[in-house]
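Propose amino acids for all 447 sites.
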């Protein structure tokens, strides 16, 4: 892996330079030579290097100072300085300027090869991190929100405009419309993108547990609180906290959240000390908060603080023209995930998807495409690859479902075969309860 690394040696002593080049080349590295800073600059304009070995004293400059020029233009290149005479102040300055290490010629010859290997490991790790960062940015960019329908484009345009600000955002829409994807894209395109993005679903916790999760607690605040705990507000300091299903939050917690929004301050559970944070809030709900206010379940003052900038996400049934594009995209994703060829989606398959009402929106579409890809036998996806509830919505008169039980039995058998008999995983893929799956296995006498 390291043998393909490219090394640049900058030294005006030709005999020594040739010797080092030979030693490094025997390790399998590709080596380029330069006798001074001027020629090194020309080479660096054309080529990329993992490691640079640079002499301190050069005819046209100083290697310690040259690092300042190299590092900004080549941040993923590591530099090892070579000097004929060890000099502690030079060594300290070299490290401050960004050198990987500073060694003495002759005395430290045995260190050169191990140092190069360590420097390359650091470069490879940095490149891996950079690739992963780009993947994350791409995954959570606005470009990842697919669809050309006016309703989704309007939502994206609004999100792009508010992303550059620090304004609190309220995302409205049915379950499965992609509210967390929007929240992540807003964060990643904001000035807070280098800080944490933390998501929490308010409906997934009891009141007391959610309070502890959000605000943290002091040791002894309640049973089993054996140590101090940071809350999500502290963890997200400087970044963004995404509060999903905000309409499910208990009234007492709504008051604490309102205080954070107004003052940036809160108190941990069981503590008396005020903590100050700088957190952007993006909230989301599938409820009609105005109705929740009218019934006394949601605070009107909190609603006004949260809804400074509202974005309504459209349900999938209102953007049916986007379904073929979304379906093909998910087919590519899940084919890669399951190591299968990308299937062709037949016209009748796509038409059936467009005739369905999609109560679960994009999340439901993803699940159905994933199931279709898993159960396909490397053939084009047609009506038969759809769940029974979608087959019933097709307008294709040439297809009729007579033996529903037989189709369901075969479908369950395929899923069980895919999960190698793991009934818990099969029930999850079938989107039914484990008890229901056991009942159907017994009813259909599935081995």
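Proposal:
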């Amino acid at each position: 892996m390291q043998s393909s690394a490219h090394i640049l040696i900058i030294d005006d002593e030709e005999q020594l330079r040739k010797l080092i080049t030979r030693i490094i080349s025997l390790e399998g590295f590709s080596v380029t030579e330069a006798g001074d800073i001027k020629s090194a600059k020309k080479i660096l304009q054309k080529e990329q290097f993992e490691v640079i070995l640079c002499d301190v004293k050069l005819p046209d400059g100083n290697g310690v100072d040259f690092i300042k020029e190299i590092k900004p233009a080549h941040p993923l290149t590591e530099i090892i300085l070579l000097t004929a005479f060890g000099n502690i102040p030079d060594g300290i300055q070299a490290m401050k300027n960004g050198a990987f290490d500073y060694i003495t010629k002759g005395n430290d010859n045995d260190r050169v090869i191990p140092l190069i290997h360590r420097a390359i490991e650091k470069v490879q790790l940095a490149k891996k991190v950079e690739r992963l960062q780009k993947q994350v940015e791409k995954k959570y960019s606005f470009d990842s929100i697919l669809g050309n329908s006016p309703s989704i484009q309007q939502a994206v345009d609004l999100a792009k405009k508010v992303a550059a600000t620090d304004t609190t955002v309220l995302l409205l829409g049915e379950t499965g419309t992609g509210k967390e994807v929007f929240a992540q894209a807003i964060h990643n395109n904001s000035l807070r993108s280098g800080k944490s993005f933390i998501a929490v679903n308010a409906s997934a916790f009891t009141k007391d547990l959610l309070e502890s999760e959000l605000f943290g607690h002091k040791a002894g605040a309640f049973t089993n609180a054996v140590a101090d705990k940071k809350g999500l507000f502290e963890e997200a300091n400087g970044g963004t906290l995404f509060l999903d299903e905000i309409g499910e939050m208990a009234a007492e917690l709504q008051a604490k959240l309102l205080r954070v929004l107004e003052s940036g301050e809160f108190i941990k559970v069981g503590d008396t000390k005020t903590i100050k944070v700088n957190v952007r809030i993006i909230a989301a709900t599938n409820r009609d908060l105005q109705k929740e206010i009218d019934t006394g379940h949601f605070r009107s003052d909190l609603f006004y603080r949260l809804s400074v900038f509202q974005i309504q996400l459209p349900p999938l049934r209102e953007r049916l023209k986007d379904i073929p594009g979304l379906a093909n995209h998910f087919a590519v994703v899940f084919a890669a995930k399951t190591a299968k060829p990308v299937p062709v989606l037949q016209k009748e398959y796509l038409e059936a998807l467009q005739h369905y009402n999609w109560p679960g929106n994009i999340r439901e579409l993803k699940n159905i495409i994933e199931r279709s890809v898993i159960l396909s036998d490397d053939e084009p996806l047609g009506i038969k690859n759809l769940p029974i509830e979608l087959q019933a919505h097709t307008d294709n008169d040439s297809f009729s479902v007579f033996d529903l039980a037989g189709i369901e039995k075969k479908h369950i058998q395929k899923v069980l075969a895919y999960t190698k008999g793991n009934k818990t995983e099969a029930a999850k893929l079938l989107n039914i309860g484990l008890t229901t799956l056991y009942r159907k296995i017994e009813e259909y006498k599935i081995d």
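The first helix runs from residue 14 to 25. The longest strand covers residues 78-83.
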